[in-house]
Structure to design on (246 residues):
């Protein structure tokens, strides 16, 4: 069954994972239903672990180590999955729990100052996902090679900025436009949210080409990739709503 595509900015969907998928065609293949079931299950894990840190925060418990530890563990899982693809299943589950701890803490901090803003971000993220899926299925937006190149280039620059900012924070150097509510900061956040949304199109396009062709085990890679994009989109939407609220 074909529904999604090939090249994507998401590191979970690089050719590294799929280069051997054409061999041994007698084995069970990747299916759309398999990716959907695994994705829903992992999103439930994200929601449960997020609810846990949310509850801890409003019970008056310091959750800094939960949120920081969550993002670090999630990053480590992503790196290991990139080099040990046979570990994708357990590491994707760990990634979901770890990223949920981060998302729950991050959302709780914002909810305290701006009530119900995280719930609005969830709705916006869901609507964005559905709109991007509709745009892809109806081919209103076609994922061409030029389209992929532009999106991949911009997203690479965005992640380079984020990684640089993360490292420099240890030296007490801050990129103010990432966190303040100036018009430039809002404009930057809008651009990032837009390209996070466009990344979904690339992920759909990549999956479209490998459903029915890749090995069954690669459903976990696809699931991990969707989690990376969806959670990134949610965080960017929440940050944007917070800046607009300020």
């Amino acid at each position: 069954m074909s529904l999604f595509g090939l090249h994507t900015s998401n590191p979970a969907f690089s050719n590294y994972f799929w280069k051997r998928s054409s061999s041994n065609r007698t084995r069970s293949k990747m299916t759309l239903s398999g990716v959907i079931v695994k994705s829903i299950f992992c999103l439930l894990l994200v929601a449960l672990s997020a609810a846990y840190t949310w509850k801890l925060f409003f019970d008056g418990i310091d959750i800094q180590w939960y949120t920081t530890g969550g993002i670090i563990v999630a990053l480590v899982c992503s790196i290991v999955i990139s080099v040990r693809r046979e570990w994708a299943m357990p590491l994707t589950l760990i990634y979901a729990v770890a990223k949920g701890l981060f998302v729950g803490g991050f959302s709780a901090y914002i909810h305290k100052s701006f009530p119900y803003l995280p719930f609005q971000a969830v709705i916006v993220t869901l609507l964005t996902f559905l709109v991007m899926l509709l745009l892809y299925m109806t081919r209103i937006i076609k994922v061409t090679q030029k389209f992929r190149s532009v999106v991949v280039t911009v997203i690479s620059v965005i992640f380079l900025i984020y990684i640089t900012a993360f490292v420099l924070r240890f030296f007490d150097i801050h990129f103010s436009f990432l966190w303040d509510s100036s018009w430039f900061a809002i404009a930057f956040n809008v651009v990032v949210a837009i390209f996070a949304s466009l990344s979904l199109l690339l992920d759909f396009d990549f999956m479209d080409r490998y459903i029915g062709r890749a090995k069954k085990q690669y459903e976990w890679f696809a699931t991990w990739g969707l989690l990376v994009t969806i959670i990134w989109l949610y965080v960017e939407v929440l940050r944007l709503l917070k800046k607009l609220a300020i």
User: Anything to note?
Assistant: Confidence is low (pLDDT under 50) at residues 1-7, 20-26. The chain has seven helices and no strands. The two ends are 46 Å apart (CA to CA). Helices lie at 32-58, 64-83, 88-113, 117-137, 145-169, 183-210, 219-245.
